[in-house]
Structure formats: structure tokens, C-alpha cells
Design a protein that fits this description.
By secondary structure, the protein is of the alpha/beta class. Helix content is 45%, strand content 19%. The relative contact order is 0.12. The chain has two domains: 119 residues, HprK N-terminal domain-like (Udp-n-acetylmuramoylalanyl-d-glutamate--2,6- Diaminopimelate Ligase, Chain: A, domain 1); 130 residues, GAF domain (Beta-Lactamase), CATH 3.30.450.40. The longest helix is centred in the C-terminal third of the chain and has 46 residues. Helix 1 packs antiparallel against helix 9, helix 2 packs parallel to helix 3 and helix 5 runs antiparallel to helix 9. The radius of gyration is 24 Å and the shape is elongated.
Length: 300
């Protein structure tokens, strides 16, 4: 399980915001609030999908508190209503969490489920055949198919997360990028001087760059954004401008990649928190056994 506040923090402030915390309430599952139901079960994060006013929000909070649910998620501005927040504080549980107005419930459910699944099995290691890391390679291939050009998916620090097949038609800069798993410094300097990264960070519009020095071919770059945050980008090596309809399709792929990048980031954050918690527990156990030999009976 994972604390409500840690779960919210793992997805980032662009999606969720803790309005009222509830101590160290632990989440093990998510559920959708149905009209007239019990308001969830102990340890569940209840999603108030159909709640649109303060009266319904107050009723759901009351039912969730009676059911010992870990938290209730409401869409803004209902979650920020002063009466709702006051009621959540008086109840001292469940936690009250705001879903940002621009965010889709379907996207958040997918992200929450992925994070909770990973938190329940932190020792699983690799994400598995159907995990988000491997899915990124499939999405890179899909993007390459759309524009008939080799593609890389990179994060906001220009680290390569995935790449498509058919990289044999690329330039030396792309080959170095894939081999080193990050864009070479001289290539970064070229694109930075051209204002590429500034535009990617500030806008959702695709960027076209002409051919550069040392045989660098033109690029079509589509930013990957979520909740107003720049998460990374799709880089395609193209030899001529791409048709607008193909760019629109590529933008759709970028939206899917954004969800995968958020999930990867959230799962990594959960793994770090779990490891830190295990370390703290081990240190507490070590302290409890002192003085004397580790694990020794203090009465002996």
C-alpha cells in the first residue's frame, strides 16, 4: 500500500492536489463512487466522478468516512469549496484530493491503477512485457509508421527512452544518440542555439528544424506534454516537410506517450519511497536491538 499524499505527489501537481490530508492514510485500491453506495471500502481511494456540486460532495465525504476509505477525489472547483474542505477537516479522514479541471478521469484511473499495482509489488524489478517502458518502443514504431521516418522518444533532459526500427536511414547524430542513450553535446548545442528546446518547453506546437552541420538531417519534433508540463518529445528524422494530417496523427501519439511517461515517473517515485521506507524500518529495528549485539536479547 501507499500513503494518499505519496500517491498524489507521484502523479504530480498537474493532475492531482491534496486539499486536506488525512494523516498517513494508506491506499490499496481505487473505486468509483456510485449514487447511494457505501462510499468505498477501507483503504480505497474513492473517485467522485459524478459529483458536480457541494451537496453531493458532502454526502460522499460522509459515506466515505463511515466506510473508512483512505481518500476522496473530486474535480475542481468542488474539491476547493470551503464547505467541502471544512467538512473533510472535521471528519479527520478520508483525505480530500482535487482532480485538476483539465484532467480526464479515464487518464487518472489508468495512472493510479498502474502506480498502485507497482507499489503492491515493488520487488518485481523490470516492468514486464506489457509495461510502460516496452510500450514506448511500440509507440515509437507507430510514430515512425505514421510519418515513414525513424523516430526517437526522449525525455526533457534529452535522454533516449525508446526508438523505432529503421534507424539505418538516419544521420551520424541519431546513431550517436541511440548508442549513447542521450543526445551528443555538440548536437544539443546546435538545437539549443536554434531555439528548439525553448519552443518545446513553452508550446505544444510541433517544431521543424532544417539540416544542420556535420550531416545532421532535418527534424520534425513533437512535444510531449501533460497538464501543462513538458515531459519530453518525439524526434523524427525527415528529409522533407510532413503533411499536416500526418502531424496531427503524430500529436495523438504524443498524447498517449505522455501518459506512459507519467506512469514511468510515478512508478519510479513509488519505488524510491518504498525503498526509503524499508531502510527506515531496518534502521528502527537496528536501534531497537541496541545496546549489545544485533538481535541480542536485552535481558540476557
Amino acid at each position: 500500500m501507499i500513503a494518499v499524499t505519496d500517491l498524489v505527489d507521484s502523479l504530480g501537481s498537474g493532475f492531482l492536489r491534496t486539499v486536506v490530508a488525512a494523516g498517513n492514510a494508506q491506499v490499496h485500491d481505487v473505486s468509483l463512487a456510485e449514487p447511494g453506495d457505501a462510499g468505498g471500502r477501507p483503504g480505497e481511494l474513492v473517485l467522485g466522478v459524478g459529483v458536480t456540486d457541494a451537496a453531493d460532495a458532502l454526502a460522499l465525504l460522509e459515506r466515505a468516512a463511515a466506510a473508512q476509505a483512505a481518500g476522496v477525489v473530486l474535480k475542481g472547483p468542488v474539491a476547493g469549496d470551503t464547505k467541502v474542505a471544512r467538512a473533510a477537516r472535521r471528519a479527520a479522514g478520508p483525505a480530500l484530493v482535487e482532480l485538476r479541471p483539465h484532467t480526464s478521469w479515464a487518464h487518472v484511473v489508468w495512472l493510479l491503477r498502474g502506480v498502485l499495482d507497482h507499489a503492491s509489488a515493488p520487488g518485481a524489478g523490470a516492468f514486464g512485457a506489457s509495461g510502460p517502458h516496452n510500450d514506448l518502443f511500440a509507440l515509437a514504431d507507430k510514430a515512425a509508421e505514421i510519418i515513414d521516418a525513424p523516430v526517437t522518444v526522449e525525455d526533457a533532459q534529452s535522454r533516449v527512452l525508446a526508438y523505432s526500427a529503421r534507424q539505418d536511414t538516419t544521420d551520424p547524430a541519431r546513431v550517436s544518440t541511440i548508442v549513447g542513450r542521450r543526445v551528443p553535446p555538440e548536437t544539443l548545442t546546435h538545437f539549443r542555439a536554434s531555439g528548439v528546446f525553448r519552443r518545446l518547453a513553452r508550446s505544444a506546437d510541433p517544431v521543424w528544424t532544417p539540416a544542420g552541420p556535420d550531416g545532421t538531417l532535418p527534424r520534425l519534433i513533437v512535444p510531449v506534454r501533460a497538464g501543462g508540463e513538458w515531459l519530453g518529445s518525439i524526434w523524427a528524422v525527415v528529409k522533407s516537410p510532413v503533411a499536416p494530417d500526418r502531424i496531427r496523427e503524430l500529436t495523438d501519439v504524443a498524447s498517449v506517450i505522455a501518459l506512459h511517461l507519467l506512469r514511468v515517473r510515478a512508478e519510479a517515485g513509488i519505488a524510491r519511497r518504498v525503498s526509503a521506507g524499508q531502510l527506515r524500518a531496518a534502521l528502527r529495528e537496528g536501534t531497537a536491538s541496541a545496546p549489545g549485539e544485533p538481535g541480542a536479547d536485552p535481558a540476557s
